Amino acid sequence: MSTAQIVAQHLPYLRRYARALAGDQQSGDAYVSATLEALIADPSTLDAHASTRVGLYKLFTKIWNSVGLNAKASPTDKNLPVERRLAQITPLPRQAFLLVALEGLSEDDAAKVLDVDVPELRKLVEESGKELAAEIATDVLIIEDETFIALDLEGLVESLGHKVLGVARTHGEAVAIARTKRPGLILADIQLADGSSGLDAVNEMLRSFEVPVIFITAYPERFLTGERPEPAFLIAKPFQPSTVSAVLSQALFFERNARPRTRRASA
User: Fold this and answer.
1) What is the percentage of the chain residues whose pLDDT exceeds 90?
2) Which of 60, 105, 121, 131 lies 20 to 30 Å from 245, alpha-carbon distance?
3) pLDDT value of position 254
4) Helix %, strand %, coil % for the chain, to 5?
């Protein structure tokens, strides 16, 4: 297969990334076209030490970052839909978030695209989560039977600016909390303390209302083989806080019912 054919396989994904980054398809495609023109003019611009996809995204990033306007976040407009408010996140965190959460690149590959190391990438992803949380407020239900993991998740959720409605250790506790306090997002383990299933608890709740769900589990095969809600997100234990931050931001970013954070009036 020729280089042109290999590159062509990745173009739909690059266009998706460019659209999310630029805010509209026409603007995004202009950068994709510039990337292809640079590649045709000099094939050596594609990083020979990286995969074709990573090399293509890296070249696109170099061109994107060469335009001074792209180094600034867009002015805040609280009336924009959630998808467009992504453009107001600081540029590098925005790129890190999209590469990991939207494009599904590994931390290593995303770091190569941005020419940073993995610890720096994780900082950027965490920053994107905080900035996005500043625009989107939600109430989170945590379903987790391991005390220390629950505390870690509670601290992470609150550090991103969200409110924890409660922590449930069993199916029954989770459903009871959801009946009285409607969550805007659920973080759920699958195997719970009393042998019950977080997956079953979530499916029961979703019969009454819609909510984005992130499963955090040491048993991902149970998620893949059981009756699972769609869309849902999966994180395997042990997890990196930056991964949870990125996926949480992703879940809210694509959740059209997420509400804008209420701003206090200036004194």
Assistant:
1) 34
2) 60
3) 63
4) 55, 10, 30
